[in-house]
Design goal:
The protein is mainly α and about 180 residues long. The chain contains eight helices and two strands. A hairpin with a 2-residue loop joins strand 1 and strand 2. Helix 1 runs parallel beside helix 8, helix 3 runs antiparallel to helix 8 and helix 7 runs antiparallel to helix 8. The radius of gyration is 18 Å and the shape is globular.
Length: about 180
């Protein structure tokens, strides 16, 4: 009976890829791929898969947040207002700082380095200074930037998922991530 909602979640996630909020991140991803001229196709696929994994994990974390909020009696859904976080000056300020630092790093003004103790634990899969974990992070960033673009399909799927079991909530969010 809930098949249409699964389809709506999948379509909603697909539509998010074409929303204005996501286009800057997608254009950066395309530019990144274009710079890989001569790179093995397997490496390019691995980078795209890591980016997709970052997106799906982000949706899973959002489902976890909603599950915890619901478990502690918080109200979530349209009655509260999906996207209400954009009314919060703290959230907007944090988002502004993150995107500002990201922009400065693109222009080479700021160089963000991973602390040595963390870098020592990361896999050594690097090519020309680029880690697959950077692609994973780019996928997560794309999800964060897409939050104001929750189109009608996404809102419908989330509203349905929020009144279902936790398993359905996670499944719906993963469908949007896919």
């Amino acid at each position: 009976a809930s098949l249409p909602y699964w389809l709506i979640a999948l379509i909603g996630g697909f539509i998010l890829n074409f929303m204005p909020c996501v286009l800057p991140v997608l254009s950066l991803k395309v530019a990144s791929v274009l710079s890989l001229g001569g790179t093995a196709p397997a490496r390019i696929r691995a980078r795209f898969l890591m980016s997709a994994a970052g997106i799906i994990v982000s949706f899973g974390l959002l489902a976890l947040f909603l599950q915890i909020l619901r478990a502690f009696g918080g109200q979530v859904g349209w009655q509260v207002g999906w996207g209400i976080q954009f009314q919060s000056p703290v959230f907007l300020g944090a988002l502004l700082i993150v995107t500002g630092i990201f922009t400065l790093s693109l222009f080479g003004v700021v160089h963000l380095r991973i602390p040595a103790f963390i870098q020592a634990r990361l896999p050594r899969q690097r090519q020309e200074g680029h880690s697959l974990w950077g692609d994973f992070g780019a996928g997560m960033l794309a999800t964060i930037l897409a939050t104001p673009c929750s189109a009608p399909f996404v809102g419908t799927a989330i509203s349905f998922a929020l009144v279902q079991s936790d398993a359905v909530l996670y499944a719906m969010m993963v469908m949007m991530g896919i």
